[in-house]
């Protein structure tokens, strides 16, 4: 019997089969065993991880791990500030979110999953 492939979302090899599906218990991703996940080729390649290595997905809540100065503003985001319902985006900054009513784009290396 062959071993199941690594998860296309988090790239960990702790996967198992359930009928016609592969399941990753680490990130909860499920995909079909008949066809490789070539539906959206760019989507599976981009995995965003927080400062602790946890996989981030759209809708997660995150917490800042250090004080950050906002470019072009006098605002300083304080360590421990929480952002709910994040969106993952492509580009230099991975996360689009709102903290204290201000829309921001942040790098995932300054965040941890709440």
Q: How many beta-strand elements? A: 11
Count of runs of 4 or more consecutive helical residues: 1
Beta-strand residue percentage: 25-35%
Instruction: Tally the structural domains.
Output: 2
The biggest sheet amounts to:
3 strands, antiparallel
- What is the CATH fold-level name of the largest domain? SH3 type barrels
Give the overall silhouette: elongated
Second-tier CATH architecture of the largest domain: Roll
Parts with pLDDT < 50 across at least 5 consecutive residues: 37-43
**CATH homologous superfamily of the largest domain - what is it?**
SH3 Domains
State the end-to-end distance: 39 Å
Q: Which structural class best describes the helix and strand composition? A: mainly beta
The first-level CATH class name of the largest domain: Mainly Beta
What order do the helices and strands follow? EEEHEEEEEEEE
In spatial order, strands of the major sheet run 1-2-3
Using only CA atoms, what is the Rg?
17 Å
**Fraction of residues in helices?**
under 10%
What's the pLDDT, averaged over the residues? 85
Domain Protein YjdM C-terminal: 48-114
Pfam families: YjdM (PF03831), Zn_Ribbon_YjdM (PF08274)
Family: Belongs to the YjdM family.
Domain Protein YjdM N-terminal: 5-32
């Amino acid at each position: 019997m062959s071993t199941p492939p690594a998860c296309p979302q988090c790239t960990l090899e702790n996967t198992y089969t359930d009928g016609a599906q592969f399941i990753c218990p680490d990130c909860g991703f499920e995909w079909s065993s008949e066809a490789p996940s070539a539906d959206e080729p760019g989507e599976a390649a981009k995995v965003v991880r927080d400062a602790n290595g946890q996989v981030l997905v759209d809708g997660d809540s995150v917490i800042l791990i250090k004080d950050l100065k906002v470019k072009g503003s006098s605002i300083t985001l304080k360590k421990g500030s929480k952002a709910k319902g994040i969106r993952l985006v492509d580009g230099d900054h991975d996360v689009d979110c709102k903290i204290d009513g201000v829309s921001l784009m942040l790098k995932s290396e300054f965040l941890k999953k709440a």
